[in-house]
């Protein structure tokens, strides 16, 4: 009897899933809408915390948790420098209300939201459009728990530029075609967008992009270094030819780029150049910077390192060696 009952339940369950898939395949809009209404989870349109989105979008939530966006409101430096989060001009970009203002356009200045501030820059900031009352994303999907709308604008650098304003202008000036997303949200392969049963079964895998928003690090090939003898000394030229914004770049943070120049086998640098957006001397895209150093060594070594705003440790970008004379 028990066996039979179980079998019956299982059968019912398969019919249910089968029916679901059938409706999906048939693409019958009316039925789909009816089902969507049954599965609609209304609180998702009331700007819930990221954790709530993570109930289905588990993997994306995990990645986002590791990102600086998740730290934007709770970062110690931010708390200190914004006078314990009382300096009003600091707050909007660090815990922003959804940035979509009307169809396909973005706010000029992000506004401070009222709830779930600790989530900083979270799912709702980038994906929820309060005017269309829907999630906005790169795909045309059937997402019963919440309405979704495809909008190519989410793939544009303008989205990031709402808050990364200085970096955005630098990027525009560079004339680069790659968007911020194409570098800072790298493709991580085809995967399911949700991990909650039964949605995984009802949807196909799609291209996923990293929601860790890595800062990345410039490669040796992104920077050109040249050394040229001149009278009783030598010039060192440095050009950022690979990163289509300043190196380093920042709106409010204080990242730094260090160029150490060594003569012969000395372990003490003859000169150290420090570039930082706070001192307004970053390496602009394709604009060479040079320095003159007295003395004529037979070898010169140049080492470039960077330090991100929120890290104490420096990371090495590359090392260049020259036998010049
Ligand atoms: C109960 C499960 C569930 C929850 C909770 C949920 N989603 Fe979704 N979401 C889905 C499903 C299902 C899809 C469609 C997946 C597919 O097509 O592979 C989807 C798709 C999406 C997409 C892609 C839309 C597109 O057009 O490209 C975005 C963006 C999204 N959700 C954002 C969110 C955000 C933000 C939250 C929290 C406010 C959230 N979701 C909460 C189930 C959920
Ligand atoms: C609503 C405002 C906002 C939007 C929109 C936004 N960001 Fe950010 N982003 C921030 C803030 C604030 C931080 C700094 C958080 C911290 O470290 O305290 C940040 C940090 C970052 C970092 C890390 C920098 C570092 O030093 O490690 C990267 C990379 C980044 N964002 C890329 C992007 C990209 C790409 C987009 C567009 C898809 C984007 N951001 C959209 C506000 C935003
Ligand atoms: C700073 C803005 C930003 C934040 C915060 C953010 N996303 Fe996204 N998300 C994007 C962008 C931009 C894309 C499109 C990337 C692409 O296709 O190049 C995207 C893509 C997606 C997709 C489609 C699949 C994929 O991986 O490309 C889903 C689903 C999604 N996001 C859900 C979420 C959820 C859930 C959260 C919170 C845990 C979240 N996003 C946080 C900007 C953001
Ligand atoms: C061609 C790829 C590429 C594009 C396009 C790009 N970046 Fe970057 N970005 C990088 C690399 C590489 C770094 C790491 C630089 C370093 O070594 O510190 C970086 C660093 C950053 C940082 C961290 C601070 C720093 O200087 O290290 C932020 C913030 C940032 N980018 C934002 C953006 C935004 C916003 C856009 C779009 C307007 C964008 N990036 C476009 C490659 C790119
Ligand atoms: C226009 C949007 C915007 C405003 C306004 C803004 N920030 Fe930020 N902030 C950013 C972005 C984007 C980043 C990511 C790195 C960068 O570009 O500097 C950031 C990064 C930071 C960082 C470095 C990351 C960290 O957590 O250590 C600090 C500190 C910071 N901001 C403090 C402030 C303070 C203090 C104010 C007010 C004086 C402020 N911000 C106002 C957008 C903004």
What does this structure look like?
By secondary structure, this protein is an alpha+beta fold. It folds into three domains: 1-38; 40-209, no CATH class; 220-323, Sandwich (Immunoglobulin-like), CATH 2.60.40. It has helices spanning 2-26, 29-39, 50-54, 58-66, 76-81, 88-91, 123-127, 157-161, 165-174, 180-184, 199-202, and strands at 100-102, 105-106, 128-129, 134-137, 148-150, 187-191, 206-209, 223-230, 233-240, 256-263, 271-275, 289-294, 299-307, 315-323. A four-stranded antiparallel sheet has the order 11-10-13-14, with no helix packed on it. A hairpin with a 4-residue loop joins strand 3 (128-129) and strand 4. The longest helix is centred in the N-terminal third of the chain and has 25 residues, at 2-26. Residues 1-5 have low confidence and may be disordered. Bound molecules: heme C (5 copies). One heme C (HEC) binds next to helix 3, helix 4, helix 7 and strand 7.
Describe the structure using short key phrases:
325 residues, alpha+beta, Immunoglobulin-like, four-stranded antiparallel β-sheet, 11 helices, 14 strands, elongated, binds heme C
Question: Which helices and strands occur, and which strands form pairs?
Answer:
Elements: H1 2-26, H2 29-39, H3 50-54, H4 58-66, H5 76-81, H6 88-91, E1 100-102, E2 105-106, H7 123-127, E3 128-129, E4 134-137, E5 148-150, H8 157-161, H9 165-174, H10 180-184, E6 187-191, H11 199-202, E7 206-209, E8 223-230, E9 233-240, E10 256-263, E11 271-275, E12 289-294, E13 299-307, E14 315-323
Parallel strand pairs: 4-5
Antiparallel strand pairs: 1-2, 3-4, 6-7, 8-9, 9-12, 10-11, 10-13, 13-14
The structure holds heme C (5 copies).
